Records
---
Amino acid sequence: MRHQRVINHLGRTSSHRKAMFANMASSLILHKRITTTTAKAKALRTYIEPLITRSKEDSTHSRRMVFSYLKDKEAVVELFREVSPKIAERPGGYTRILKTGNRQGDNAEMCVLELVDYNENMLGTAAAKAKTARRKRTTRKKTETAEENAPVAKTGTGKGKKSGAVKELETEPEEGTAAE
């Protein structure tokens, strides 16, 4: 029976798993999204979310603790300078898993693991919806310059007779003709 055995070992030794998680977490922090298998993404989420929570308090101790997990100075600097101010108000759930289908070679279930506050597409649609909801709808009048520069559209049968259904659209009379 596997009672209380919740860690997915991913078919790796402990040292290999720790090194893999450190590399994947550093890549996620530096690039804001990575593509991996769903099993690795779920395991990585439990690895990186406590590190992001620890980065909310910028102290020497928390930086050293995060560095002991990541083993990458650039990732630690990026986490404390860029990521932590952006997620300061969020109480948890810093990552999102988007499933993308199965891998061609071995049919493994693939996904994209990303930081929630860095997806411009989802943030853009939410901001656009909020912006249109607040904006007051008004009708805009055409300016005179736009009407003067508008092309003159003439429609008709082409034999001098005007069709009853189609009207001639003209903003100004042509030169050389008398105004009616």
---
Amino acid sequence: MFKEIVREITPLTQNDCFTLFSRKKAEFTFPLHTHEELELNLILNAAGTQRIIGDHMDEIDDIELVLVGSNIPHGWFTHHCKSPEIHEVTIQFNKELFPQVLIQKNQLINIKKMFEDAKRGILFSPENIQRIAPRILNLDKKFGFDSVLELLSILHDLSIARNSRMLSDITFTKENYTFNSRRLERVFEYLHRDFSKKVTLTDVAKIANMSEESFSRFIKIHTGFTFTENLTEIRLGHVSRMLIDTSYSVGEIANKCGFQNMANFNRIFRQRKGCTPKEFKQKYIGQRVFV
């Protein structure tokens, strides 16, 4: 799949901390693409635009703010947008802006987690967008050290913002995810390896060396989701990749990804993606550029 998506070479150089583009336009013309740099994208006056982040597709409102991690396919497409004056502010920066020796420090734990979550794309809440947007719009009026300090401050404030939402399913980008718990890492290693098989709460509780009740509380506290929700997310990420990358039928893909009941699979997929598996494949492939 990734050979069929534009690999963008951004203008960010080794001598720059970040780059910023502020553009007003009547349509989105750049294709689905990836790049190494992290990207903070503020979009105004673009209701009806289609956004694709990883395997997540949605139609946006008048204003949105998204942080996109390294190498995740993403793009915005005119779709149903009728606005003659879309305003897009894009900030691109390398993760080396926070080198490992720095981001491991306790004071930066929230930014570290945000960058981890950005591997799936993060959509910030309307309340936080209203609060942060003026600072992003004014960032190009700052220069040198002041501009870097302001960007760092913006990233910090976003890292502690509430009600943010991760977009793409966890397995879609094939990134490695870390947890502050060896027990959880063992569990997720198992889930990522055996997602296509029958996996029970009893199985994973044993791996974590906990009772089922204790593990259920443990995984909910540390991930924000139940065991079943985490397993479903992993399976759906693989489903999305296979829909895009293979010629298997929907039924074959569902079975290979651990969904034994087609009615239940179709219900879950539509609930999570807002469309049927067939519609998802058609929409996604329609935005790819073959190179």
---
Amino acid sequence: MDQHQVTLIVAVIALAILVAVVGFLFIRKRRSQMLRERFGPEYDRVVKKEGGVHPGEDVLQFRAKRREKLQIRSLSSSSRSDFANRWTAVQAQFVDDPKNAVVGADQLVSEVMKVRGYPVGDFEQRVADISVDHPVVVENYRAAHDITLRHNRRQASTEDLRKAMVHYRLLFDELLEDSLPERKEARG
């Protein structure tokens, strides 16, 4: 083998490595873009919590794959109407009994989630599952839950309880909608 052939082989190998690296980086960038679009503000929160883009994206990818296995369904019009009426009652209860109204709102949100097909066991798992379909309001759910926990420890003011009701209402309204928000699938 002469010097020219060796140089050509090295150049072909270097080009193949370069194409592979550029392809890998393109796929990673595309995956990041799709996850950002799908998870919105939840993307930044998870990346920060997990300590970096790659571990954060792995968590979000896992959530998306878990969500695909769930049988999430729309509510019937009669169920939607029943839940809306029950929400109105819980909201009206707030005037006379804010503490129990917040507890009722939390229970009602959990019930809607269950009827829609979301698992409702562990709170953190509920949040992870909801974040796939409702990434914008999931932070409201966290905030409302935090206030509910503080209320249980007798550390929440009436104003805090009012904020919890607003947070629960935002998620509740999204859960009542006919269908799931259009989401681009994150693949990777």
---
Amino acid sequence: MTMPILVGTDGTRRMGKSLGNYIGVAEDAVTQFAKVMSIPDEPMRQFFTLLTEVPLAEVESLLASGQNPRDIKERLGKEIVTQYAGAEAADHAANEFRRRASGEDPDEIADVAIPRDQLDAEGRMFLPRLLVALGLEKSTSDARRDIEGGGVNLGPDRLVVKDPKAAVDVIDGLLVRVGKRKIVRVRLA
């Protein structure tokens, strides 16, 4: 028996973990859904036929309907997530994706402890070091690139910091965001 090779989330190469273009069956529902929403429009037919139980006639009707591709991908995402996590998790993932796409913070934000002895006398820390200490970046070099690119913002007002040499007042409950998907709340220990 032969099967077609499923393309990855990049829409061109085969799906594979080593290529970084995969949707893992053990990933949480929100991550699975977000990855489905990131695929290009062209491979949607292949994803529907190889990964869901939606009848082929219904798939053809959906794709020929002239609907917004985003709406069709949402249906695809719900179908895939439902198989692994259930319908309730699929609905939650779709709602969470819409919230995040509109710029809102997620419902659940991880708390990360920062020992007070890592702060200077004024209760400040250089932003690249803070991003590494919070686990938002692996190195201060990566953190500097994010900062210089305008991808780091702080607090409820989403203050964008572009100076990699900036020292930040670290307070309990400070929200730190890197890009659209990484967000944590500082807890002083």
